[in-house]
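Record type: monomer structure entry
Structure origin: computed from sequence
Chain ID: A
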Amino acid sequence: MGPSTLKAIGRAIQLSPSTVVGIVDRLEEKGLVHRQRDTRDRRNVFVAVTAAGQTVLANAPSALPNGFGSALGALPESDRQALVVSLEQFATLLEAKIPAEPA
């Protein structure tokens, strides 16, 4: 899509801008995207993929089957939000440093 606002990204992936903010925050922490203020209207902030993000995208297999976007879009907003929360919790668990059990 090129540099886009959080609102435009949210519309494209059918999530609220507030949900997109959290996702973009995590992607920015990993150096995969960066925020850039509009030079004409500094109230607008655009999100753009970095070179590292492009590399990740180029090497990533398709994670979703055909028609998934349409099926997701057919879900009520509350169900999509609940799904995002669950997936974010799952991602946090995957990234957690779990101490080894004593032998």
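Annotation 1: Strands lie at 4-5, 33-37, 45-49.
Annotation 2: The mean pLDDT is 85.
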